[in-house]
């Protein structure tokens, strides 16, 4: 298995060339380069979408796995014979051998945030847990969370910030949601799903291929937990099918021949949460927790804000499914879950400024056309959807907050509101 050498502790180390170019400041190159300089490397970060840096004087190039091969900076590195390593590799390289805690990394095409947060809640029954997801960095103690930093992406560079936060609070476990793979730091890795796979790097690479860095960079002793549809040999597999060793129903968790009773909160949409509960359970079992302990930690669980959470606010049924991983299938699932009478309002779209990968607009419009008669008030969020408002007899809003405000002003007790905007919360 390919391993990255250690960063030099002093000038003249033969383990790595002293001059390092870290590409893509939009996705964390600055932080990686800063930490490299602290370790003695002569590292510089470069923006690569609007200009081409001179890489001729550098001995090592670090580039994100999603950088298209056709990017001029990437092409220049290859022309000069400098095969780049990924941001994931560089982060693993920087932090290897540090951190007095167990590390869990979560990646996949869907369900990453929910799985990571449920796992953090479960693990916190035994001690302090730090988590890093699209919600930011949070610290968990006995099932309760405290936000440390919000607004962070799940780019691999931010694993550095999560790692440092875990050290600062004395965490016993760190759960990191990581975009497009693992860093090689994890003791336990979770591949949630490869369903709805998509292309990256200028359409040249499947996202699932990049996410398999979790396996290719794994350290000795690493344990892999994977969803059934990943179709990979894992230490634990979760899912409802014949290969699944762990699964969740409304009333119990199933693990091999064992079962434990579940007492989840009223109104939880288990169809949306079962895979994440099963994945988190499998990881917790791998880490040494027992099934009854896991079930106890989940007692009363009512879901996570923005993750198919169903609540009543002022007599209005509110289905909240606005999150950074939202896809068109999630919009349809949210509509399906909004059963009942009264008028139905749908706030749907994207906050393009806060997410890297926007909604599949053609597929979303097809869904809205097909189900338009069910929706009494339709509010489209984001610039890319605004041109479709007239044809769909819809209103528009610049962001999620404005869209929800407009919908709530028009609804009364007994009505229903579905929120499906792709955004960071």
Describe this structure in words.
- The structure is a single chain.
- The protein has 425 residues and is α/β, with parallel strands linked by helices.
- It folds into three domains: 19-94, 3-Layer(aba) Sandwich (Rossmann fold); 97-297, Mur-like, catalytic domain (UDP-N-acetylmuramoyl-L-alanine:D-glutamate ligase, 3-Layer(aba) Sandwich), CATH 3.40.1190.10; 309-422, Mur ligase, C-terminal domain (Protein-Tyrosine Phosphatase, Chain A, Alpha-Beta Complex), CATH 3.90.190.
- Helix content is 27%, strand content 24%.
- The chain contains twelve helices and 23 strands.
- The strands form five sheets. An eight-stranded mixed beta sheet has the order 8-7-6-9-5-10-13-14, sandwiched between helices. A six-stranded mixed beta sheet has the order 18-19-23-20-21-22, sandwiched between helices.
- Helix 11 (361-371) links the parallel strand 20 and strand 21 (377-381).
- Helix 1 (29-38) runs parallel beside helix 3 and helix 4 packs across helix 8 (270-286).
- The two termini are 37 Å apart.
Shape: globular
The rounded distance between the terminal residues' Cα atoms is 37 Å
Looking at CATH, which topology of the largest domain would you report? UDP-N-acetylmuramoyl-L-alanine:D-glutamate ligase
Low-confidence stretches: 6-14
For the record, the CATH architecture of the largest domain stands as 3-Layer(aba) Sandwich
Assigned CATH superfamily of the largest domain: Mur-like, catalytic domain
Strand content: 15-25%
Question: How much helicity do the residues have?
Answer: 25-40%
Count of helical segments?
Answer: 12
Report the C-alpha radius of gyration, rounded: 22 Å
Strand order of the largest sheet: 8-7-6-9-5-10-13-14
Q: Indicate how many domains the architecture comprises.
A: 3
Instruction: Summarize the biggest pleated sheet.
Output: 8 strands, mixed
- For the residues shown, what is the average pLDDT? 90
CATH class of the largest domain: Alpha Beta
Assign the structural class, choosing from mainly alpha, mainly beta, alpha/beta, alpha+beta, or little secondary structure.
alpha/beta
Number of strands: 23
